[in-house]
Amino acid sequence: MSQAGIEFRTVSKRYGGAKAPLVVDGISFTVPKGSLTTVLGPSGCGKTTTLRMIAGLETPSGGQILIDGKDVTHLGPAERNVSMVFQSYALFPHMSVVENVSYGLKATRVDPTEAAFRSTAAMALVGLAGYDQRYPSELSGGQQQRVALARALVLEPSVLLFDEPLSNLDARLRRSMREEIRSLQQRLGLTVAYVTHDQSEALAVSDQIIVMEKGCIAQAGTPRDLYESPQSEFVAGFMGEAMLFPGEALADGSVRVGPLRLRPRAPVKPGAVKAAIRPEAWMLAPGHGDGLSGVVAKQAYLGGYQELSIDTGIGVVFVVSSDMERTWKIGDALNLRVEERGVSVVPA
Fold it and tell me: d(Cα 344, Cα 266) in Å, to the nearest integer?
């Protein structure tokens, strides 16, 4: 059996005639069987179209799509053994929870006794035991999400797809649901493709992240690869709110950014570069020193950390500081240094 749960081979998609622009432009990637891959990117980058092509809801304009080693490029959704959890949940309001969960089984004419058993098991799996006769309107957003998840799982799909599944939930519920989805995926060994525009969500749930930009793959790798070793200005800026500053790579392997000398983790050729510095990488001290001098322009207290905008000689620097012992005020002079683990260097 193929080790690839999903495989794209130079897949393209355009809407309209041959001269219409490509929404997805010849992308290739593999989702290993039993793993979770997130397709991440800003609105309009092609990530949802990519997911819909896996589901069979869109037909590629070119290339091949394989699921478990089988070419499914021209097969419809019902022929792919794929289930999808939508952003809107897409529950039937006039049906009870158990009727919603078992709908797909009835549609495929599974024996009613088996359908009831599988539906009950799927509901227990997602923490909805005892909710059989409730209706969607009687459930919270998180519970509705669980119904949608149970309805997808009950079909025992080869591949499970998520399209922005947590975007309708509040911050605390989003965190707990993403943990549940990840735990369930690992426990059951599911092959999952997951679409989101939220970087922290992608970092939290993924074995692999594919960052898309304008229909192409900008970079693919583990969450750590993308966060710590971005290969382009776009990926560096998109992952984790890094700010980019012009710099110069020197012959001794260091990088100069204004008065700062940084030592990148990977070797860099001498010449012009961009230094991507994450907000949490800055270390602050009062007064002036041998680092980067600045003045606090904005300050916000957020409970467990502070956000600061600081005017400096290299421009405005955005800082997230977990040091809650010190309260900075607008107009305070300070000295900035950089924790080098939070710095990436990319071509200028």
Answer: 9
Domain annotation covers residue 234: no
Q: Provide the 10 A C-beta neighbour count for residue 75.
A: 16
pLDDT tens string 12-44: 999 988 888 999 999 999 999 999 999 999 999
Element (H, E) at 245: strand 243-249
Shared domain check, 275 and 191 = no
| Total count of domains within the chain | 2
Domain that holds residue 49: 4-228
Contact 64, 9 (CB under 8 A): yes
Domain boundary among 176, 201, 228: 228
Any idea of the CA torsion for 322, 325, 330, 333, to the nearest 10 degrees? -90
Q: How far apart are CA 151 and CA 89, in angstroms?
A: 10
- Per cent of the chain over pLDDT 70 is 99
Whether 107 and 136 share a structural domain = yes
The two structure tokens encoding residue 268: 């860099």
Judge if 258 and 133 occupy the same domain: no
Tokens at 42, concatenated: 């800003």
We report the CATH number of the domain holding residue 60 as: 3.40.50.300
Q: What is the pTM of this model?
A: 0.86
63 vs 100: CA distance, rounded Å: 35
Cβ atoms within 10 Å of 111's Cβ, excluding its own: 10
Angle between helices 141-153 and 171-188 in degrees, nearest 10: 20
Distance CA 25, CA 70 (A): 22
